[in-house]
Design a protein that fits this description.
170 residues; 78% helix
Length: 170
Amino acid sequence: MPKADISVIDFAMQAEKEGVSFYTKAANMFKDKDLRALFMKLAKEEAKHLEEFINLKGKALKKGIEECFKSVEVDDYLDAVIQEGIFPKGEGTSKKLEAVKTVEDACKIALQAERNAILLYTELVKLSKDKSQKKILERVLDEEKSHLVRIASLRADHDPLYMFGKFGRD
């Protein structure tokens, strides 16, 4: 399998753009104010991550250290994540969102995307050699984990079977 020819930071920026798009579209699908507010908050947080990555890349380019964003250690796992993306892309986003009829449906897609983001950023933190890059990636990783928790909680509030599976274990 050929390795993705993309810088770590460029991929992270693309993933965050896709997150903004997905959460904004998801927010506009529901009339429930709390649900819309949650998805818009997630969209804003993804936009904040994008801004952080843009600023980080700009600073690195000024210092002439763009190579800290390139990794020759991309393994098959990370390459697969990069190739598939975090959120559904292009027509895939529209088709997935058209199929969303319930809070549970939206949460399923969002939970998978956040899991993918957590896996990606965990690997990128391990690969990062630059301290400022690593610090930002760690902070974004923590925020993505908090997104996962909020979405799981929302799903549990709206999906009794999910809640039972999550909390009903002995």
